[in-house]
Specification:
By secondary structure, the protein is of the alpha+beta class. Helices cover 28% and strands 22% of the residues. Bound molecules: flavin-adenine dinucleotide.
Length: 488
């Protein structure tokens, strides 16, 4: 960071007005009429009032804001698309580094490369790349920010064909907690590049991503709505797992939605909405989904060739802000006990309950386990239990239902995806990083953020903190994990 700027903000530590004068971007405080809208995050269950929001204009603003927060011992929250399930993109009393104005996007179709600012959403990059018949494998919802999805891994509609989002990541521009602006790639700061591919926002604030683009033009996609029975549910995972990599499915076990392709008298019936993308020849795709249709007569279906970005229309509503709770797990299979638990729970669940099932494998599984911090390469199934909890009269029951089903399934878990965690304690974070990845991340954290400046995330505390705890026998409670900033 510029030495003059450092002197300036150091001279008047707690003064936000001073900070505002040295930024290229804008600083918003709660007295700004636009502040409430700017502090909106996706998960309203974690609604918060930050001290201020800095809408950064460049990497220099990020460095300045981090320095200001460090000098004043203020918590930092980092926000890209605001879709953190744990609400980490905001926080009471925190200084939000809001990246949404970093919207630069350059696509080089000949080289099949995209350079994208960290304020863009998955949907925006997908639409722009689709104009060239190209795509990055992001997630299932267009409004999710590039920042969170990429740094956590990124599991979506192309996961079996083209892998995770991080498997398409070639480099990042990242501002470290020390204010250095670095490039991390396979050839530069390799430890950092390994860590940001799955380790979340623990190591710095990424301002720009460079992705390799895959050829993805028209796809066969849509939804088959099947009745919820044990026999149908049992059949889904084996069919999806045996299909070729062109097929990636997301099955949502939920009340049949009031969409035109489901007859009105079946709306609200508990069902399995099997959504999918087949990234290949449409006729072969129709053959690939025929076995699902053979499981039971669908309540309704909409299956059609479409431009790849159109699949986001099926999930657009999920991207609107809502109060929500989630528990998620990877599983080696959906065994008989799990089928029974899910069917039991969903047939007697509170309104709006949902279980989401993703069948993995394919390209994601072909990357060596130690190539990226995301180390769940052999996960076969991801199951997520989701409840809306916006109604105070029913929220407690919905949370209790969610946790009861989770408790039944947890013994079958083979880990969890960090991007689908709420604040669930260090054991759960640890289970996101098997095969030595957690320890390796803690070592990288110690190198780049030894005092845990960036802790409003699925926090990997620096290795030194961990050693002190082992030696003293002290293990902090989950609620205090983020505050262990005195590592040295
Ligand atoms: P934010 O709240 O802005 O960021 C989340 C956290 O990530 C931040 O607090 C910070 O710690 C870190 N972070 C974000 N940007 C940066 C950055 N540039 N530099 C450093 N740290 C940063 N995930 C999937 O993999 N596949 C899916 O299909 C999928 N679908 C989803 C659908 C919905 C409706 C929602 C709400 C989430 C979904 N997710 C999915 C999970 C999603 O990937 C995570 O919630 C992700 O963290 C959201 O990213 P964001 O940038 O929008 O969130």
């Amino acid at each position: 960071m510029d030495a003059a700027v450092r002197l300036h903000i150091a001279a008047a530590p707690a003064d936000l007005a001073t900070l505002a004068t040295v930024l290229r971007g804008t600083l918003m405080t709660p007295d700004d009429p636009a502040f409430t809208a700017a502090s909106q995050i996706w998960n309203e269950a974690h609604r918060a009032t930050p001290m201020a929001i800095v809408r950064v204009a460049n990497a220099g603003d990020v460095a300045t804001t981090i320095e200001f927060a460090r000098l004043n011992n203020i918590d930092i929250a980092v926000r890209s698309g605001g879709h953190s399930m744990a609400g980490h993109g905001s926080g009471d009393g925190s200084l939000v580094i809001d990246l949404r104005d970093l919207r630069g996007l350059h696509i080089d179709p000949a080289q099949r490369l995209a350079w994208a600012g960290a304020g863009l959403t998955a949907g925006e990059v997908t639409s722009a790349a689709a104009a060239h018949g190209l795509a990055v494998p992001f997630g299932d919802t267009g409004s999710v920010g590039l920042g969170g999805i990429t740094l956590g891994g990124g599991i979506g509609w192309l996961v079996r064909k083209h892998g995770l989002t991080i498997d398409a990541l070639l480099s990042v521009e990242i501002v470290t907690p020390d204010g250095d602006v670095l490039t991390a790639s396979a050839d530069e700061n390799e430890d950092l590049f390994w860590a940001v591919r799955g380790g979340g926002g623990n190591f710095g604030v990424v301002t720009r991503f460079c992705y390799r683009l895959h050829p993805v033009d028209e796809v066969l996609g849509g939804a088959l709505v099947l009745p919820l029975t044990a026999q149908v549910l049992r059949g889904i995972v084996p069919i999806a797992a045996e299909a070729s990599d062109e097929l990636s499915i997301i099955a949502m076990i939920m009340e049949a939605p009031p969409v035109p392709f489901v007859p009105a008298d079946r709306h609200g019936e508990m069902s399995i909405m099997l959504t999918f993308v087949w990234a290949g020849d449409p006729d072969a795709g129709r053959d690939a989904i025929a076995p699902f249709r053979a499981l039971a007569e669908p309540l309704g279906e909409l299956v059609t060739p479409m431009p790849y970005p159109a699949i986001y229309e099926f999930t657009a509503e999920a991207g609107t802000p809502q109060a929500s709770t989630i528990r998620s797990l990877f599983m080696p299979s959906l065994d008989e006990a799990a089928v029974e638990a899910v069917v039991d729970a969903l047939t007697a669940g509170p309104a709006g309950s949902m279980v989401q099932l993703r069948v993995l494998g394919g390209a994601m599984a072909r990357v060596p386990v130690d190539a990226t911090a995301f180390a769940q390469r052999d996960a076969k199934v991801m199951l997520s239990i989701m409840n809306g909890i916006g109604d105070p009269l029913t929220a407690a029951d919905a949370i209790a239902w969610n946790r009861r089903l989770f408790a039944r399934l947890a013994p079958r878990a083979s880990g969890v995806y960090a991007n689908f965690l709420e604040d669930e304690g260090e054991a759960r974070i640890r289970s996101a990083y098997p095969a030595g990845a957690f320890e390796r991340l803690a070592a990288v954290k110690r190198r780049y953020d030894p005092t845990n400046v960036l802790h409003r995330n699925q926090n990997i505390r620096p290795a030194a903190v961990r050693r002190v705890e082992r030696e003293t026998g002290f293990e902090p409670a989950a609620s205090t994990l983020g505050r262990s900033r005195s590592a040295n």
